[in-house]
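Lecture 7 notes: from sequence to structure.
We start with the chain below.
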Amino acid sequence: MSSTFARLLLEHAARRPHAVALREKVYGIWQTTTWAELAQLVRHIACGLAEAGVQRGDHVVVVGENRPRLYASMLAAQALRAVAVPLYQDAVAAEYLFPMRNAEVRVAIVEDQEQVDKMLEIRAQHPALARIWYDEARGLRNYAEPGLASLDALVAAGRAWDGAHPRAYDEAVAAGRADDVAAMFFTSGTTGNPKGVVHTHATLLDSAIAGARFDRLTDKEEVLAYLPPAWIGQNIFSYAQWLACGYVVNCPESPGTVMLDLAEIGPTYYFAPPRIFEGLLTSVTIRMEDAGRFKRRLYRHCMDVARRVGPALMDGRPVGLAARLHYALGNVLVYGPLRNALGLARVRVAYTAGEAIGPDLFAFFRSIGINLKQLYGSTETAVFVCLQPDHEVHADTVGVPIEGVEIRLEESGEILVRSPGLLKEYYRNPEATAEVLDADGWYHTGDAGFVDARGHLKIIDRAKDVGRIAGGANDGAMFAPKYVENKLKFFAYVKEAVAFGDGREKVCAFVNIDYEAVGNWAERRNLPYTGYTDLAAKPEVLELVRECVEKVNADLAADERLAASQVSRFLVLHKELDADDGELTRTRKVRRGFIADRYAVLLDALYGGRSEQYIETAVKFEDGRSGRVAATLRIVDARTQPALRRAA
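Predicted structure tokens for the same chain:
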């Protein structure tokens, strides 16, 4: 790809100036920005940044929810050949310190007062941060910090500077090269400091365009941008592919209105991690359980038909006339209204990635007529490595390599990738770069997997996390913690799970219940509770989780290679694992090592044969306060099964 983001913007503005580029919901009303208006806004912000001294190679931090003027700010920085650095808007101030020091950030553009406060908080430790501009002025009227100003002021300064230097912006855009660094995305930092993944215009656009060709995306698509812009998946779907294809990106009013806004927009192209789809199904299940008897019976009957017929129709397999008619009736009575209620009535392509998705969950959405597929990729690969083609969708694989991507498997099972979309480097970390990028251009993903007989890639676990059982009857057997955790999270009642077993005689696990799903389950059984800690400790809830664990054990027993990974003992944690407490990354990946250290007393109790253990834990609340949560946790033994050996 020889273009840049800024040049693509100008091409859209010239070819279709009055077409809608972005929508944003403000006070319940959708406001539109055309391509011509966006191009003018980007020009003025870029000129304002130039007037403030931003030059080629400088890093411009952007923090906030999906907002048109924040998208314009990233484009403006890239037009000047500077580097956009989106950071997670829900991170605490201390989490910004390393990325901003690492990238020597001098300027930041943020959404609102919350983000301004975080930037001002870290200034004492990072005094190089000289300028901060904010989009939303509410609450900031009496702030008089040096270098702090509104985005409106930046635009006004840029308009004046553009008048005095009328050719500077056009010359900067024309000088831009595809191999200029466009953006830097910081990794989750599950085992240490995050790494800055450097991507050029070419790497991001090559990957975005290959994905667009794969699914035949056009400028007619509608996308809802609701995931963090700092996550590269959101950046590809709602930024790189947006500029490559020219479709409409819709920004919801707030995180709390996403479901309402989803229903209003009716996207045609949709991405969500498995937890979002789990939440959608949980809400449907809860509503149906609270419905009248007739509606429940109709729903269950139609869903039985959908499970038998829906996947075959989605995959283009032959279906008998009677079954088609039965399904069509169900579509009128249940599936169509359900898709509409979920906001997915117009979806042509939906993707999920980041974690394994449960086969039942996957089948549910495909059975009601939603073309849900899986993909495989990472920050370092600009997301797209493998995608599932239409009519070749399997719950246990992540698809086939897309255009321009090569895959190779090491003897250890590690997956290697070579493609035009690979990272340029880890910023200022040549040692880490050399660990993942070899001399032949292969990126070492760190994931373990294999290609099945259909030519589709199947992921087992992170290669470094695959361990071995030590001692006992299963000495030396494989232990795949992520595989076990994902199996547990396939159940609606389990929100998070952390499995331990490497170097030990057996596998034990911590479990977080899904408060909404289990709370609804408890209420229907007249089981009183006062909060998460109380509900998680109920004997009835422990028995519910035991049933889930033992079903997972039965599944694992059917695979001789993973039978030793069955969970022997578990406990339900007294608090939800939280990124603010350091237990999860901002992309909700468990920090297993940190959790093992923090809850060492619970691990000792699990492996020491104890039946219960008292623990007291420091926590951070959403309003910034600190506190402590204490409980005596009961440890539960789960039934394991002998491996089912395959017939010779």
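Points to note: Residues 293-314 form the longest helix (22 residues). The first strand starts at residue 20 and ends at 26.
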